[in-house]
From TrEMBL:
Complex and partners: Part of the 50S ribosomal subunit.
Keywords, ordered alphabetically: Ribonucleoprotein, Ribosomal protein, RNA-binding, rRNA-binding
Protein name stated in the entry: Large ribosomal subunit protein uL4
UniProt key word ATP-binding: no
Length: 209
């Protein structure tokens, strides 16, 4: 599959890059995508929620009233969950929400996500570039030249590029990641995926296994 390579101004360079059908042209496996996105979102949960139960409440343990003769229910410690300020019954405890997923399934999910973007014409290839200094204005101009300034976008770098990365940090609708940081969730969450030429080679090398 050959795709035109654009420059930083969004113009066709006249060159084309050959995209591997093993990565960008497979039959998408929606269930693999679902599993990988589910795992990603689960890992975003901190799981630090905690409520104090009866044994953890500070307070007296004396019996607050006699057992019989009051006409009301029996009552022991003031820390009982039925009283205001008492412990909580079966309250939340710290929990790890992480899920395990086979590496082959994760690889299949990412290839499926990239193939979907390629099929839907939401994948752009741009030649490698850099900014002289980090400037949000320059990055906005770059997105505007590609016609995706109003869309949620994901820009994938082929290596470390601090100027481009820092230029994008103030924008909520766009995210810049290295090829090693790409995930199925980020691909599917973006309306447009922009791959720099260097990233294409790295992705094919990592996902063609």
């Amino acid at each position: 599959m050959k795709v035109a390579v654009l420059d930083v101004k969004g113009k066709d360079t006249g060159r084309k890059v050959e995209l591997s059908d093993k990565v960008f042209g497979i039959e998408p496996n929606e269930h693999a995508i679902y599993l990988d996105v589910k795992q990603y979102l689960a890992h975003q949960r901190q799981g630090t929620h905690k409520a104090k139960e009866r044994a953890e409440i500070a307070g007296s343990t004396r019996k607050i009233k006699k057992q019989k003769g009051t006409g009301t229910a029996r009552a022991g410690s003031i820390k009982s969950p039925v009283f205001r300020g008492g412990g909580r019954i079966f309250g939340p405890r710290p929990k790890d929400y992480g899920q395990k997923l086979n590496k082959n399934v994760k690889r299949l999910a990412r290839k499926s996500a990239l193939s979907l973007k390629s099929k839907d014409k939401e994948l752009l290839i741009v030649e490698d570039f850099d900014f002289d200094t980090p400037r949000t204005k320059d990055f906005v101009q770059f997105l505007s030249s590609l016609g995706i300034q109003d869309k949620k976008s994901l820009v994938v770098l082929g290596g470390e590029n601090n100027n481009v990365y820092l230029s994008s940090r103030n924008l909520k609708s766009s995210e810049v990641v290295r090829d090693s940081e790409i995930s199925t969730y980020k691909i599917m969450n973006a309306k447009s995926v922009v791959l720099l030429e260097g990233a294409v080679k790295e992705l094919e090398a990592n996902l063609s296994k």
